[in-house]
């Protein structure tokens, strides 16, 4: 029995309002993690 362990990360909307540098940093780290593990960034 094989498990499909594909990586899928996302950048959720912020409840604090406008995007800022901290939000962009999180999005960048999520994108890099997905790219490294062959996953997708939503």
List keywords for this structure.
single chain; about 40 residues; alpha+beta
Structure notes:
This protein is an alpha+beta fold and 42 residues long. It has one domain (8-41). The mean pLDDT is 88. Helix content is 38%, strand content 10%. It has one helix at residues 21-36; strands at residues 8-9, 40-41. The chain has 1 helix and 2 strands, in the order βαβ. The longest helix has 16 residues, at 21-36. A two-stranded parallel sheet has the order 1-2.
Instruction: Tell me the total number of β-strands.
Output: 2
Along the chain, the helix and strand elements come as EHE
- Give the end-to-end Cα distance, rounded to a whole number of Å: 28 Å
**Bulk shape:** elongated
User: What does the largest sheet look like?
Assistant: 2 strands, parallel
Kindly state the percentage of residues in helix: 25-40%
* Strand fraction: 5-15%
pLDDT < 50 runs, ≥5 residues: none
Spatial order of the strands forming the largest sheet: 1-2
Number of helices in the DSSP assignment = 1
Number of domains: 1
Mean of residue pLDDT?
A: 88
Q: What structural class do you assign from the helix and strand content?
A: alpha+beta
Radius of gyration: 13 Å
């Amino acid at each position: 029995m094989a498990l499909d362990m594909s990586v899928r990360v996302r950048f959720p909307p912020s409840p604090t309002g406008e995007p800022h540098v901290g939000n962009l940093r999180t999005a960048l780290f999520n994108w890099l993690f997905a790219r490294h593990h062959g996953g997708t960034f939503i």
